[in-house]
Amino acid sequence: PDTLPGSLRPEAAPAPPPQRSLPVWGWAVMIAALLVIGILAAVILLRPAASAQTEAVLPPTQPTEEVVAEVTEVPASTPTPTAAPAENPSGDAAASPYTEGDVLLEDDFEDGTLDGWQNMGDQEALVEVVDDGTGNHVMSITPGGYFPHMIYGTPNWENYALEARGFLAETSPGEFAPFLALEFRLDLARTSCQNYIFQPSTEGTALASIGGCGWVGLEWSPYYRIDEKQWHTLRVEVLDSAIKSYLDGELIFDVKNDDLAKGHIGFIARNGDTVFYDDVRVVELVP
Known about the structure:
Layout: H1 24-57, H2 61-72, E1 99-107, E2 118-119, E3 126-131, E4 137-142, E5 149-152, E6 160-170, E7 182-186, E8 193-200, E9 205-211, E10 214-221, E11 232-239, E12 242-247, E13 250-256, E14 264-268, E15 274-286
Antiparallel strand pairs: 1-15, 2-5, 3-4, 4-15, 5-14, 6-11, 6-15, 7-8, 7-14, 8-9, 9-10, 11-12, 12-13
């Protein structure tokens, strides 16, 4: 009532302070802070798991190195060619375990004859001295139906080096590849294997024993071949049981075989071919 004295009137309650709301940019800052905290927490929690997974996937270092070492030690599948001969394969004391003794034969056929040579095979073969087209005279062999054996020497020739040049002048298709051949330690008294033969051909090179035993191969290489209408130098050295064979100055075979101890030397040609031989030299080898 308005009639009450002023001292008895109740005082009005004070008004509450006005409420202040968070501005929009404040909310944005708060949300960004929460996001950063969440990302950091996730990184910290996931890092050990990721490290463990990586260690499980990657192979250890040491086994990898061992596998590489094993692969590099595997030998090549292609056979390694025989090592090259000494720089001087002619048989001097510095390069070989022997010295050259007496010269047993030297024949370049420039006298136009075949004195001392014998045909022990195909008697229908045409064997003669001819001009090879350059003014040089050579022994020419053209078989008449099977293999002619043009031999020289004595049954007592034992340790020696035989060297000659060969040339495939004419060839024709046949059962065997065209070849040149040196025969050595030819023993006509034997009924089994009668001689060794070093035989380079257009398909490879062979070393064998032949005769009544047929063909007994001692060595073979497809990597050393000869070409037609090209001169090649053939050389064999026999010293006791050691046999070395060279083609164009390169050592092809180095073997041991004591089946044949001594005998003649000779040449052979394939049926259907015409073969030239020249510059024949036989020298005694002294241990």
